[in-house]
């Protein structure tokens, strides 16, 4: 707030020759002031003096030039006193000192868990990672330069796409901080250039690899792998699959909670149907795949790697089973839009990464010209004779 001794009114005069200004608050009107710079004498009058007001707010000294009216300057100063006392002085904003650790927890609890429950585990990983780099800092201290250093350090540990996912999470967090009034200014991540990602090299199983991996599909892990290969479902969707989601009469799996938030219907083929029927239901669990205590699986990395090792398959992730499902469909002539619907992609652009696997749709497109030719595409007999006529000049 303000203190009375720190609030003041004074006037200054400017030399007409060198434009150097002097404080004349202790000088009386009518006297002359000697300019130390140009040697000129300046007569002090009420017309050539400008009044200034000076006050302190939030430990900052503020000076304002009012003009040559002392009455106006006194009125403005009184107004500033009231504004400061009521904390309504708009030109001075209280600097926010929101701790990064506190806000990211608030963001995770009040936004991620509520609005993105399917990505809750992924968000938890980002929270722990970003805390490792930015812990102890305030949001205002996280500048584009600090983020660039984080980006470079993180690239030494993971791929470019993983770094980009962390930047996207941080960017969304700062936008939410701005919306919630916890951060002032421009989002610092908006000034960061993302790494270029190379998503063209897809890893998917060939037919002989699928046959090898199916030989070692035993127990729950076997059922999980088979349903992934035959439906393209994501790992979290399989873990959360319940018996009530499966309609054996219509041969359909209904997914109510998906990554995009939209309901998805997936047809079941005979091979998968027989496998699902053979699975023993847990008496105390509604989940199709669960542990001995009836709780759904959270991670099957160890079991999955064991199957891969036994089958002699390397450099394979569980998500690549989803790529295998889509790739096999495309290579068997299924159109991309149908594949998009089965995978649950919101945008066809995401599905286009599989387009290079099938040339049939391109071949069919150009064959349309052959099957639907009209007279505009064919030469008449007269035109053909004219082309063979020697009157045509050839080069």
Description:
- This protein is an alpha+beta fold.
- The protein has 15 helices and nine strands.
- Strands 2-1-5-6 form a four-stranded antiparallel beta sheet, covered by helices on one side. Strands 7-8-9 form a three-stranded antiparallel beta sheet, with no helix packed on it.
- Strand 3 (32-34) and strand 4 (41-43) form a beta hairpin.
Write a concise keyword list for the protein shown above.
four-stranded antiparallel β-sheet, 9 strands, single chain, DNA polymerase, domain 1, hpI Integrase, Chain A, about 400 residues, alpha+beta, 3 domains
Largest beta sheet, briefly? 4 strands, antiparallel
Tally of domains? 3
Shape: elongated
Mean pLDDT: 81
What is the total tally of β strands? 9
Rg is 37 Å
Element order, helices and strands? EEEEEEHHHHHHHHEEEHHHHHHH
The CATH homologous superfamily of the largest domain is called: Intergrase catalytic core
- How large is the share of residues in beta strands? 5-15%
- Ends distance: 92 Å
- For the largest sheet, list the strands in their spatial order: 2-1-5-6
């Amino acid at each position: 707030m303000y203190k009375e001794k720190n609030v003041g009114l004074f006037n200054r005069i400017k030399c007409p020759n060198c434009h150097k200004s002097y404080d004349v608050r202790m000088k009386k009107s009518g006297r002359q002031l000697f300019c130390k710079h140009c040697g000129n004498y300046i007569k002090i009058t009420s017309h050539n003096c400008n009044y200034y007001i000076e006050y302190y707010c939030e430990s900052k000294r503020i000076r304002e030039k009012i003009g040559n009216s002392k009455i106006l300057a006194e009125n403005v100063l009184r107004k500033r006193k009231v504004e400061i006392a009521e904390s309504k002085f708009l030109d001075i904003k209280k600097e926010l000192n929101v701790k990064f650790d506190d806000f990211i927890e608030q963001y995770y609890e009040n936004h991620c868990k509520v609005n993105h429950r399917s990505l809750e585990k992924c968000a938890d990983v980002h929270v722990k990672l970003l805390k490792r780099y930015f812990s102890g800092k305030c949001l205002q201290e996280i500048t584009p330069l600090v983020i660039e250093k984080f980006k470079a350090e993180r690239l030494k540990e993971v791929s470019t796409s993983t770094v980009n996912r962390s930047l996207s999470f941080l960017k969304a967090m700062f936008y939410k901080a701005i919306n919630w009034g916890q951060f002032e200014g421009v989002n610092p991540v908006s000034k960061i250039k993302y790494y270029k990602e190379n998503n063209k090299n897809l890893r998917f199983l060939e037919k002989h690899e699928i046959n090898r991996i199916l030989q070692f599909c035993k127990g729950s892990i076997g059922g999980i792998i088979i349903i992934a290969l035959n439906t393209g479902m994501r790992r979290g969707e399989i873990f959360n699959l319940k018996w009530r989601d499966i309609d054996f009469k219509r041969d359909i799996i209904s997914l109510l909670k998906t990554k995009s938030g939209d309901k998805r219907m997936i047809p079941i083929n005979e091979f998968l149907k027989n496998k699902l029927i053979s699975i023993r239901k847990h008496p105390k669990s509604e989940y199709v795949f669960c542990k001995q205590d009836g709780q759904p699986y959270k991670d099957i990395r160890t079991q999955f790697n064991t199957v891969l090792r036994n089958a002699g398959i390397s450099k394979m992730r569980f998500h690549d089973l989803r790529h295998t499902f889509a790739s096999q469909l495309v290579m068997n002539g299924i159109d991309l839009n149908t594949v998009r619907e089965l995978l649950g992609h919101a945008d066809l652009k995401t599905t286009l990464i599989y387009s290079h696997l099938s040339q049939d749709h391109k071949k069919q497109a150009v064959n349309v010209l052959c099957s639907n030719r009209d007279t505009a595409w064919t030469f008449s007999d007269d035109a053909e004779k004219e082309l063979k006529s020697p009157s045509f000049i050839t080069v």
